[in-house]
From TrEMBL:
Alphabetical UniProt keywords: Amino-acid biosynthesis, Aromatic amino acid biosynthesis, Lyase, Phenylalanine biosynthesis
Top EC class for this record: lyase
Molecular-function GO terms, alphabetical: prephenate dehydratase activity
Catalytic reaction list: prephenate + H(+) = 3-phenylpyruvate + CO2 + H2O
Occurrences of domain ACT (ranges): 199-276
EC number from the UniProt entry: 4.2.1.51
InterPro entries attached to this UniProt entry: ACT-like_dom_sf, ACT_dom, Preph_deHydtase, Preph_deHydtase_CS
Pathway(s) this gene product operates in, as recorded in its UniProt entry: Amino-acid biosynthesis; L-phenylalanine biosynthesis; phenylpyruvate from prephenate: step 1/1
Chain ranges of the Prephenate dehydratase domain: 3-187
UniProt key word Calcium: no
Classification of source organism: Bacteria, Bacillati, Cyanobacteriota, Cyanophyceae, Oscillatoriophycideae
Residue runs in coiled coils: none
Gene: pheA
Keyword tRNA processing: no
UniProt protein name: Prephenate dehydratase
Length: 278
């Protein structure tokens, strides 16, 4: 039985992505709640998959407006055994969930940092003096919303239904085309043939042109990158790990040869997975 770790409690966008994954990968199976394993933070969900407590973890990795989810990128780099099995892109539309009758009655608003950031202009305009509290997930604050009529949370419409709480306004995200990419991480190689691959590497020395060399390997072989992002190595200021997405499967011969060449011009090269995007 496939078990799935995700950022909880129930009603998060990660849970919606996890349910979509189960439906796509096991269309014949009936929905079984015991497959769904909520964790309070993204690193804990990833760790559960790494330790083998669950089969896969479904975690957000990038938002179309806010960019990379740094916790996911950092955990992936540190992971010894996890591979990206699949990517899932989901549209995200946020609701303001509260028992308050008017916006004027709201004193505090809770959400995940991505939720607050994706509604920043709306908040500045409609709730300029309200205290914003960043929490581990969009649904974390809903138990407080249930008790206190001056509290609101930014979460999904589905979350409002699950907790039987009213929506005062929807949608409140600043950009209508707000999307988040989620990754399915597991200890085995993906079963379906990939179309995309992800790599991460650190550089040998902090010297002029160090990043150009790996990029030239890809450019010379006409290999298209669909994303590049850097994160600090945490060793010393100014040293970075680069995360790169490639529009090619890992078993493409041209790409396999590029990987050999990349070994020579990087310090530590990690293949994070070769997978399909749904
Ligand atoms: O907190 C959630 O619901 C998540 O799954 C993380 C998140 C938050 C905001 C947008 C997309 C994902």
């Amino acid at each position: 039985m496939t078990t799935v770790a995700y950022l909880g409690p129930a009603g998060t966008y990660s849970e919606m992505a996890a349910l979509q994954y189960l439906q796509l990968s096991h269309p014949d199976l009936e929905h079984d709640p015991s497959r769904m394993c909520p964790y309070p933070t993204i690193p804990q969900a990833i760790n559960a998959a790494e330790q083998g407590h669950v089969d896969v973890a479904v975690v957000p990795v990038e938002n179309s407006i806010q960019g990379g989810v740094t916790m996911t990128l950092d955990s992936l780099w540190q992971s010894e055994s996890l591979q990206i099995q699949q990517a899932i892109v989901m549209p995200i539309a946020h609701a303001l969930i509260t028992r308050a009758q008017n916006l004027d009655d709201i004193k505090v608003v809770y959400s995940h940092p991505q939720g607050l950031a994706q509604c920043q202009q709306w908040l500045d305009h409609h709730l300029p003096t309200v205290q914003q509290i960043a929490s581990d997930s969009t649904t974390y604050g809903l138990h407080i919303v249930a008790k206190d009529v001056t509290v609101a949370a930014i979460a999904s419409q589905r979350a409002a239904e699950i907790y039987y709480l009213p929506i005062l306004q929807y949608p409140i995200n600043d950009q209508p085309d707000n999307c988040t990419r989620f990754l399915v991480l597991g200890r085995t190689s993906p079963t379906t043939r990939g179309t995309h691959s992800s790599l991460a590497f650190s550089l040998k020395r902090n010297m002029p042109g160090a990043l150009v060399k790996p990029l030239l390997v890809l450019a010379d072989r006409q290999i298209n990158m669909s994303r590049i992002e850097s994160r600090p190595t945490k060793r010393s200021l100014g040293e970075y790990i680069f995360f790169i997405d490639i529009e090619a499967p890992i078993d493409d011969p041209n790409f396999s040869e590029a990987l050999q060449e990349l070994q020579a011009v990087t310090e530590n090269l990690k293949i994070l997975g070769s997978y399909a995007i749904t």
